[in-house]
Amino acid sequence: MTSAKEFDDEQGVSLWQDAWVRLQHNRLALLGMGVLIFMIVIALITPWIVPYSYEEQDLMLGAAPPSMAHWLGTDVLGRDMLTRVMYGGRVSLMVGFIATGVALLIGVVYGAVAGYVGGRVDAAMMRLVDILYALPFMIFIILLMVLFGRNMLLLFLAIGAVEWLTMARIVRGQVLSLRQQEFVEAAISIGLSPWTIIRRHIIPNTLGPVIVYTTLTIPSVMLLEAFLSFLGLGIQPPQSSWGLLISYGVETMEEYPWLLIYPGLTLSIALFALNFLGDGLRDALDPKASKD
Amino acid sequence: MSILEVNNLTIRFYTRNGVTTAVDDISFSVEEGETLAIVGESGSGKSVSCYSLLGLIPQPPGRIDGGTALFNGKDLLQCTDSEMRAIRGNEIAFIFQDPMTSLNPFLTIGEQLLEPLIYHRQYTRQAARLRVYEVLEEVGIKDPIKRFDCYPHEFSGGMRQRVMIAMALIVEPKLLIADEPTTALDVTIQAQILDLIKNLQKKYAISVIFISHDLGVVAGIADRVLVMYQGKIVEQGLADDIFHDTQHDYTKRLLASIPDGPKLRPAPEVEKPFLQVDHLKTYFQDSSVSIIKRLLSPSSANNDNQFIKAVDDVSINVNRGEIVGLVGESGSGKSTLGRSILQLVPVTEGKVEFDGVDLIGLNPSLMKKQRRRMQMIFQDPYASLNPRMTVFDTLAEPLLYHGLATKKDVSEKLYTLMDEVGLARSHIRKYPHEFSGGQRQRIAIGRAIATKPELIIADEPVSALDVTIQAQILELILELVDAHDLTMLFISHDLSVVRYISDRVIVMHHGKIVEAGKTEPLYAAPQHDYTRSLLAAIPVADPRREQLSS
Amino acid sequence: MLRFILSRLLQAVPVLLVVITVTFFLIHSVPGGPFSADRAVAPAVMKALNAQYKLDLPVWQQYTSYVGDLLTGDLGPSFKYPGRSVNEMIYAGLPNTVELGFYAMLVAVCIGVVAGVIAALKPNTKQDYIPMSLAMIGICMPSFLLGPLLVLVCGIWMDWLPVSGWGDIPGDKILPALTLGSAYAAYIARLSRGGMLEVMSQDYIRTARAKGLSEWVVVLKHGLRGGLIPVTAFLGPAFAGLLSGSFVVETIFQIPGLGRFYVQAAFNRDYTMIMGTTIFFSTAIIFFNLFSDVLATWLDPKLRQQFQGGK
Prior knowledge:
Largest sheet of chain C: none
Strand content of chain B: 25-35%
Number of strands of chain C: 0
CATH class of the largest domain in chain B: Alpha Beta
Oligomer: heterotrimer
Shape of chain C: flat
Strand content of chain C: under 5%
Low-confidence stretches of chain C: none
CATH architecture of the largest domain in chain B: 3-Layer(aba) Sandwich
Distance between the termini of chain C: 14 Å
């Protein structure tokens, strides 16, 4: 919409730029972001940089503590832990991002429609959310996983089905309060069509909380997957995720503690990074804190 | 005898973005039994200086960088925490601006009123209760025994402020500091509260510091006046001197900004109906009524219990080229009427004829064409602009959408627009949060006139602005109405502003029209009781006239 | 208030019905019966078993007969352990899970609220950073990680606390309760910090200070009521979370509780056991949600009056 600069116009500072500046002051959030980017990059290039292949076993070696040859040690079958942790990361992160994406899509559309249309439709839609919220989802997921086998797709859908509810609530709350803002009324009085209003006025102002919440949903989803895998209900071998590795580690934790500690540590670090980043984003994008 | 003596008080705020000097070396005193008014616009430092006396400003980032404040011989700024707590609410009491948020919503008012007595005077709960009943009666709250156990949300704004006053005066302090106590109240309630404060002050011989931006209110209540601007005191003296023998330029500007008297421009001679509203009804569902009740009762518009009748059978006419003022207090329905005319809220019943076309039920594409011709200026300059769009985007949107400009020539048109509303061209790429309130309102006005509309509905366009900025924006509006031959419906609760700008006036109360007519005759001789009480309550910025009427 | 509770109870019934129905049909839609996973059974034995467990009836009939039994409180016999009924097994495991949940909730609320309030009183100082960093650890270290680590450190390496059993050795309840409760303590700490920060910046707190009240009174009497509202809203989901967390904690610490039974039942395809525990858990969650809603409504005078008979 903006055309080229003319007449030496002063460049304004948008709220996004403002938020970015504020984020930069938050060292923990920057650290989190850095760690996250590092982990994502590693996960992407894992197949090319692993020291050993995934299935390579060394039965003579058995479970060995960390050494120069195997930085994180080996498991009971002599497989390199570093490799296993890296591959596990790929799966865990992928589940995290994809399942969150599912929840995001459903939640945002549902919440935006409910918030914008308002009235009875909104009341009905939110009633449904309330009812679903009261259901013991964890129990259903466990049931689903047990009964229908551990299908990756099912896993994504099941996890996404739990998380979209809160996203819908947040988006609907934002849209509802935005709709009553005077600049939206102004847009209506100019004669803009509802779709234009949603696109240019409502969505840009909803992005903030959505971004924050998405960043905080990913760790939640990863925890959920790890939980299921720990119980034996999530990812199944030959694939592995951090949760699965942790469950193996627990079995032999007295004799071979490193099998528990390293996957556990990596999972925790990933969660820390995401949470710090999410918190930092929330503080940075908070309209109350912006210049008034 | 001075009860409070402030000398060389300086307060600065140290934030990441720099240091601001909120209060710059001010000195003043308050005599026993007198009312000192501190007048200023936002940012003048009037509130900060008084809050600092009781240690109520957040000390990082604020810092008292110098000065003394002697109260009965003791320097307030040097007090220890426990000394300060003994003085707060006991010897010096505070009343705050917003009675809605200043009372704890989780405790009964009785409980909140007991506290000063129990903590400062060691009353037992029983004895304190009796005293609370007495004080509640005194401030005009009937049925104190029952009201004792009520929560703040069960009271109206005016009643809540009475509770705050009761809470402040219950231990008979020596000094009362009132920070804009009537600014959030309707004009008729304001008059009652001001009377109450005056009477209680005489009865208990209290000294009062009254902070306000409203010179009319100040004229009625102050013995001496202090004018502050950007942290400094620019003028102080007896009330009469300040108003009639003004020394400083800023004070003169302040007084000149108050709309006083009739509109200077003539009304259009030929009466051609342009906007005709017929038996308009806008009802809303009362959401506090339970779902069961709603389902069980018939949904006709006559069912009183479940509807809020914001606009209740209103018919008005606006002629081409005239400015009609729509006046009322909060809840009168004036804003809803404005929005109903522009079809921003769904209308329940009635007709809105704009230049012969009935807007109600008009199909969307025809409506879009009509929308080009009628626009709205909103009250809140902060909320009426999309914070994520630059000035360019906001102003260009209506032009490009209605095809009144192409991407090539829109810049040129926008620069002309900005000139017209008094904004610097170089600011066109900035975002709303980088402007002041008055500038934002100019942007909003620019957006409203961009499509060259014929009718503008202005909903409290200057109510959120400082009085000197108000005057500028009102002048701008009058210029634009002249230059573009606009017809305007000017909605406001401020009777002086309405008088200054309108050819005709319509008075609303509880959703109905109570009186209507040409401005001057109506102001001179109001017919309806409500109009009379409304006009009588307007504070006049002249102590001689104000003191007479009390 | 009574009307509010009654109306919520009424609303809970259809939800419960949905849960029962969905679970029932989910289980019965899985290919293969409950016995097909086991070693090969002779057809005659299979027929006898099916008859005994009513599996030869059409699904709808099984459903109605099940619901009928439910109303009399009979959850049916266990599939996996012939001779034992589901009721019996639930009663065996229930007390332990309830106790574990109770202690965990106690840990969560007490530590969480205190930590959050302390942090909110001096934001952005050490008093804030330290509790909140500890809270972050609670959030980022899931119970199935924290538990084993605690077992390793406190039980095996340091030998400070017992690591299995429940009620057998004094002190064996400490680690499980801590493990289960710490994540929720962390969430509650953050919620109460947020709530308190919001409240402490309100005008009415300034009024309370202006009245000369001591800081204790301002925080505890004026601040807490509003500040803890987000916590009460969280209690319902927290309870549901504790319940599912118990699955893991009971497994790690070898506690014979309902959670562990549930997981085992799921793996063993013990239909009636799964149904029984699912219904049991769901009912408990629904009731607890009701409780937390009532609590939140009771704390806010505006809401309280809305439900006490309209305006």
